[in-house]
Amino acid sequence: MRIFPAVDILGGRCVQLVQGKRESATAYGDPLSCARRWLDAGAEALHVVNLDGAFGESAKNADLIQALIKDTNIEIELGGGIRSVEDASRWLGTGVTRIILSTLAIQKPESIRQLAGEFGSDRVMAGVDARGGEVAIHGWQETAGNYIGWAETFEHLGAGSLLYTNVDVEGLQQGVAIEPVRQLISRVHIPVVVAGGVSGRADVAALRDAGAYGAVLGSALYSGKINLSEALEESR
C-alpha cells in the first residue's frame, strides 16, 4: 500500500485543517520544506492540495505547486479547485502524476471521460468526499447523493482511481471509520486511496487489510501522533 504524506497549501503555507474549515488552519511552514522533510523520511509519493483553489482562488499557489512538482520529481496526486477541463489539462501539463476531480466530477461527470480519453485513465482520480454517506462538494458545504453510487459512476466514466475522504473523521486524529472503506472497495474495481482519520499504525494496517491502494497522512502526521517510518513499515 502506498503512503501519501499530505502537503496542503493555503496562502503559500503548508497547513492542516480540521473538518475542512479554513479558520481551523494550523501552519507548518514552507510547502517545499515540508515536502522535502517527508521525502527525506522515506516517502515515495505526496498528496498535494491547493486549498486556496478549493476555496475559490484556483490560480493561487500555481507557481509554488509547479516548483514543488519539479523539485521533488516523484508520484504526486494533486487536487483543490480544479473546476474545469481546462484547469485539469493545465495541471496535467505540469507533470503532476494525477489530478483529483471532486466538485467538477459531480457537476460535469463527462469531464472524467474527456480527460481520461486525452491523458489516460491513470492520470484521472475522482474524489469521493463523503459526509454521512453522501458525497460532499463545494468545500464540503453541500451534499449530492450516495458516495458508492457516485464512485461506481466515476469508474464507469473512466476514472483510473478514487480518493475517498471520510469528512466525518477528517482532521480529528481519532482513527479511520473502516466499514465505509470496505463497502466502497468491494463495489469498485479501481484503486482507492483513503484519507481522513489515519492516526496510527492500526489505521494503516486496517486500510492495508481492506485492500486500499493508498493512505493519506495529514493532521496526525504533522502533530506527531503517527510516525512516517512506522506507517511505511505497516503499509508493506
How does this model look, in words?
- This protein is of the alpha/beta class and 236 residues long.
- It is 39% helix and 29% strand.
- It contains 11 helices and 12 strands.
- The chain has helices at residues 31-40, 51-54, 62-72, 85-92, 103-107, 110-119, 147-157, 178-187, 201-210, 219-223, 228-235; strands spanning 2-10, 13-18, 21-27, 45-50, 75-79, 98-101, 124-131, 134-137, 142-146, 161-166, 192-195, 214-217.
- It has an 8-stranded parallel beta barrel, surrounded by 8 helices.
- Strand 11 (192-195), helix 9 and strand 12 (214-217) form a beta-alpha-beta unit.
- Helix 1 (31-40) packs parallel to helix 3 (62-72) and helix 8 (178-187) runs parallel beside helix 9.
- It is globular.
- The termini are close together.
- 47% of the residues are buried.
- The model has no long low-confidence stretch (mean pLDDT 92).
